[in-house]
């Protein structure tokens, strides 16, 4: 086992060898408040980033030893998360594919029923899509039905969460309007006039992640850029936003995949 270091742009990055693989990790040094326990914390994010939080004066040897003690755990966690990412493939909208809703996985099931109208509903861990008949447009029809189902659900859930969270955003006057519109690289946005826009794919994420995006955009009504003041606003209404953001970012490829 070995360790290497790269201090490019003041970013502390190290690596260790486990088996036949070099595993990289980033060290985040933080000041320790009086009375707080000095400890080294290791996290493996869903996007396969490994971060090590340490006291700002921690010795490199102590950091490396702490990492090596948990080397197998880190490797196993990376293996699990990589397994999740392997499933990110273009969808064909056929029975057996995986869909997400509010952080839970559902198996897509497509059925034909000549006596029924085209519809989508959740039932017993499945997302059931019913078509009147199968034809050459089957894939396109299933995709359109599923996409519309997500949009309708997103409108309702986002409205509910916005109403629930607004009392925390004391700087917001009235109820801001919002639209649900697909975006390729953003979960949400806020216009200069305070109008909000949310990505319908966000409905696939857990409610805590939805709340993070809504609160993030509400904070932009008070502060339009990502200034230090903005992050203070966000921390005041969601102290654990960094962990929630990492969770959402780690699953982004799966949620945005269609």
From TrEMBL:
Occurrences of domain YgjP-like metallopeptidase (ranges): 38-249
Signal peptide: none
InterPro entries (UniProt xref): UTP_pyrophosphatase-like (IPR053136), YgjP-like_metallopeptidase (IPR002725)
Protein name: M48 family metallopeptidase
PANTHER family (UniProt xref): UNCHARACTERIZED PROTEIN YGJP, UTP PYROPHOSPHATASE
Top-level taxon of origin: Bacteria
Transmembrane segments annotated in the record for this chain: none
Pfam hit, one: YgjP-like
Stretches assigned to coiled coil: none
């Amino acid at each position: 086992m070995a360790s290497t270091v790269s201090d490019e742009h003041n970013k502390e990055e190290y690596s260790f060898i486990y088996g036949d693989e070099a595993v990289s990790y980033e060290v985040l040094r933080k000041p320790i408040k009086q009375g707080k326990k000095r400890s080294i914390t290791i996290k493996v994010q869903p996007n396969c980033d490994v971060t090590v939080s340490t006291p700002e004066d921690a010795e490199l040897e102590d950091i490396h030893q702490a990492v090596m003690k948990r080397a197998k755990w880190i490797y196993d966690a990376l293996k699990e998360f990589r397994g999740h990412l392997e499933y990110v493939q273009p969808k064909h909208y056929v029975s057996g594919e995986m869909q997400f809703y509010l952080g839970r996985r559902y198996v897509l099931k497509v059925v034909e029923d000549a006596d029924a109208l085209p519809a989508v509903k959740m039932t017993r861990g499945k997302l059931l899509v019913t078509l009147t008949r199968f034809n050459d447009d089957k894939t396109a029809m299933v995709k359109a039905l599923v996409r519309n189902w997500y949009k309708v659900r997103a409108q309702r859930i986002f409205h509910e969460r916005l109403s629930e969270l607004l009392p925390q955003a004391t700087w917001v006057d009235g109820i801001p309007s919002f639209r649900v519109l697909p975006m390729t690289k953003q979960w949400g946005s806020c216009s200069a006039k305070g109008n909000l826009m949310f990505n319908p794919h966000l409905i696939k994420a857990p409610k805590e992640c939805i709340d993070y995006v809504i609160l993030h955009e509400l904070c932009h009504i008070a502060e339009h850029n990502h200034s230090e003041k903005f992050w203070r606003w966000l921390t005041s209404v969601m102290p654990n936003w960094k962990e929630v953001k990492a969770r959402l970012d780690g699953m982004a490829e799966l949620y945005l995949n269609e």
